Amino acid sequence: MTTFAPAATASRLDHQPGGGRPKARKSPYPYWFLIPGGLIFTIFFLVPSVMAFYFSLTRWTLFDQEFIGLDNYVQFFREPALASGLWHTIVYAAVTSGLKVVLGMALAVLLTGPILGRGFMRSVAFFPVLVSTIGVGLTFQVLMHPTKGVINQALDLIGITGPAWLVDPDWALLSVALVDVWQGVGLATVIYMAGILSIPGEYFEAAKVDGAGPWHRFRHVTLPLAKPAGVSVIILSLIGGMRKFDLIWAMTKGGPGFTSDVMASVVYKQYQAGFYGLSTAGNVVLFLLVIVIVLPLFWSFNRSEDTR
């Protein structure tokens, strides 16, 4: 009779080969939502990247091209100015990222503690991040003037002779790096603050009960548990430092001479001079430099987290 059909159907489903129910087929519907992002990624990243690799092997203009193999890369590393730009990029990224990591953590610890006007101080610390980088560069270009700048005039009042910040070849790159740290440390501070505030308060209370002082609580509680935030700050600071162009161009234009030239400014100058193939090769070198430095750090940090 028809009244027994559901039971019979259930019995047949329960006795499938292998002793289990048939597996439900996964619908491809969710994957359709990946198509818009995949198209955007392909059109605006993958295709230009492949084209850049190809054009770095050519001598090209807007109207023609000639395949020359690795000649652009050979010339790039033979030119002293171009090779020095690569070294300056590494130094600039190391200085700016190192200072942002240290100062960002110090400010984050201070601004998450019980201090007066904490909300206002947080706003002040983050404010430079919101200011135009070109505006910051032009402003500090005036402030760092060797004779008329406010910074050197203030140092003269306390008996210190300030250096020729942007004119002295030994100080130019470091001066720009310090301004970069002043503008970018607020972002590092916010990231660290998010990491510190996510730590359960019970850990700090337990450390206090065990007799741990402020330094030991920082070293054994704050520092290890805020490590994911620290990894983010290191990676973002390194990438930003190696790609920096606008601040350097606004303050020194790579001078005096080539003493503050970095990869981005060297590539821009080559484009201005009409050496499109050489400048494209410089872009590829910069791209590979970021990958070679950042990816091993990222994998190392993740591996250390997984083994804990």
Automatic annotation (TrEMBL):
<feature type="transmembrane region" description="Helical">
    <location>
        <begin position="181"/>
        <end position="200"/>
    </location>
</feature>
<keyword id="KW-1133">Transmembrane helix</keyword>
<protein>
    <submittedName>
        <fullName>Raffinose/stachyose/melibiose transport system permease protein</fullName>
    </submittedName>
</protein>
<dbReference type="InterPro" id="IPR000515">
    <property type="entry name" value="MetI-like"/>
</dbReference>
<dbReference type="GO" id="GO:0005886">
    <property type="term" value="C:plasma membrane"/>
</dbReference>
<keyword id="KW-1003">Cell membrane</keyword>
<dbReference type="InterPro" id="IPR051393">
    <property type="entry name" value="ABC_transporter_permease"/>
</dbReference>
<keyword id="KW-0813">Transport</keyword>
<feature type="transmembrane region" description="Helical">
    <location>
        <begin position="31"/>
        <end position="55"/>
    </location>
</feature>
<feature type="transmembrane region" description="Helical">
    <location>
        <begin position="90"/>
        <end position="112"/>
    </location>
</feature>
<dbReference type="GO" id="GO:0055085">
    <property type="term" value="P:transmembrane transport"/>
</dbReference>
<feature type="transmembrane region" description="Helical">
    <location>
        <begin position="221"/>
        <end position="242"/>
    </location>
</feature>
<feature type="transmembrane region" description="Helical">
    <location>
        <begin position="275"/>
        <end position="299"/>
    </location>
</feature>
<feature type="domain" description="ABC transmembrane type-1">
    <location>
        <begin position="86"/>
        <end position="297"/>
    </location>
</feature>
<feature type="transmembrane region" description="Helical">
    <location>
        <begin position="124"/>
        <end position="144"/>
    </location>
</feature>
<feature type="region of interest" description="Disordered">
    <location>
        <begin position="1"/>
        <end position="24"/>
    </location>
</feature>
<dbReference type="Pfam" id="PF00528">
    <property type="entry name" value="BPD_transp_1"/>
</dbReference>
<comment type="similarity">
    <text>Belongs to the binding-protein-dependent transport system permease family.</text>
</comment>
<dbReference type="InterPro" id="IPR035906">
    <property type="entry name" value="MetI-like_sf"/>
</dbReference>
<keyword id="KW-0472">Membrane</keyword>
<keyword id="KW-0812">Transmembrane</keyword>
